[in-house]
Amino acid sequence: MPNRDPDHWLGWHDGYGDPSSSLSRRLAVVQHHVGSALATAPPGPITILSLCSGQGRDVLEVLRDHRRRQDVRARLVELDPTNARIAREAAAGIDARAIEVLEADAGWTDASMGASPADILLLVGIFGNVPEADIEQTIAAVPMLCRVGGITIWTRGRRPPDMTPVIRDWFARAGCDELAFVAPEDALFSVGVERFVGRPVPPTSGHRLFAFDASASEGPQPRDLP
Ligand SMILES: C[S@@+](CC[C@H](N)C(=O)[O-])C[C@H]1O[C@@H](n2cnc3c(N)ncnc32)[C@H](O)[C@@H]1O
Questions:
Q1: Count of CA atoms in the C-beta half-sphere (13 A) of 5
Q2: Mean pLDDT on 188-201
Q3: Rounded distance, CA 128 to CA 126, Å?
Q4: Residues with a CB atom less than 6 Å from ligand 1
Q5: CATH 3.40.50.720 fits 8-213, yes or no
Q6: Where residue 226 falls among pLDDT bands split at 50, 70, 90?
Q7: Among candidates 72, 15, 32, 7, which has minimal Cα distance to 153?
Q8: What does the domain layout of the chain look like in residue ranges?
Q9: Measured in angstroms, how far is the CA atom of residue 105 from the centroid of ligand 1?
Q10: Three-state helix/strand/coil letters over the chain
Q11: Is the pTM of this model over 0.85?
């Protein structure tokens, strides 16, 4: 079921306006790990792929001053035209090698072709909005989306029933080693960081990953959580 409010995903970003919100805290954790992944990437080009990237803050705000920014080719895939425009405007001021904001459905691998396998893959703000089967299917596709040795950063709320143990297991089965799992006691968000060490699968178009489904939503967005 698609969300009926056309501005829903634009307004969702308002939570970032409050630096003490769970959403802002989650952003800080994701940004920290994007920065670390960049800092520890081997010399040479670095590809970043962010699916359902929204306004792209997690990538763009880190890239702005990062010493590796000129090595980075980033593709941000976002369906909402206003969010995509805001991301494009933010990207315009950044001195990276290339930043592309693709207004497309990230739920199919077609939108990732040419940017996968990525050195840094962001699956941020997806797993709380899609059916469980789609989470599993997306994680199973990590071997075609993330390069061997590359980093995948994901998020999921922990409102009961907490799915994160299952999600972490799915990443392990997909050939990932968990580098970090941040789940603060006083908040319900969590951020996982995985290194793909399994057998790669050549990227193909026409492969279904997920579809957002309002009825699969975890409920109130992270900014509403304690
Ligand atoms: C929960 S927000 C997360 C945004 C961003 N990753 C963040 O954490 O700030 C989900 C975003 O996914 C976008 N979206 C929903 N379905 C999509 C799809 N099929 N393909 C690409 N983007 C999609 C929405 O417009 C929204 O901006």
A1: 7
A2: 98
A3: 6
A4: 9, 12, 52-54, 57-58, 77-80, 83, 105-107, 124-125, 212
A5: no
A6: very low
A7: 32
A8: 8-213
A9: 9
A10: CCCCCCCHHHHHHHHHHCCCCHHHHHHHHHHHHHHHHHHHCCCCCEEEEEECCCCCHHHHHHHCCCCCHHHEEEEEEECCHHHHHHHHHHHHCCCCCEEEEEECCCCEHHHHCCCCCEEEEEECCCCCCCCHHHHHHHHHCHHHHEEEEEEEEEECCCCCCCCHHHHHHHHHHCCEEEEEEECCCCCCCCEEEEEECCCCCCCCCCCECCCCCHHHCCCCCHHHCC
A11: yes
Pocket test for ligand 1, best of 31, 52, 225 (most atoms within 8 A of CB): 52
Identify the pLDDT of residue 220.
47
Q: What is the pLDDT of residue 124?
A: 98
* pLDDT digit string, tens, across residues 89-100: 999 999 999 999
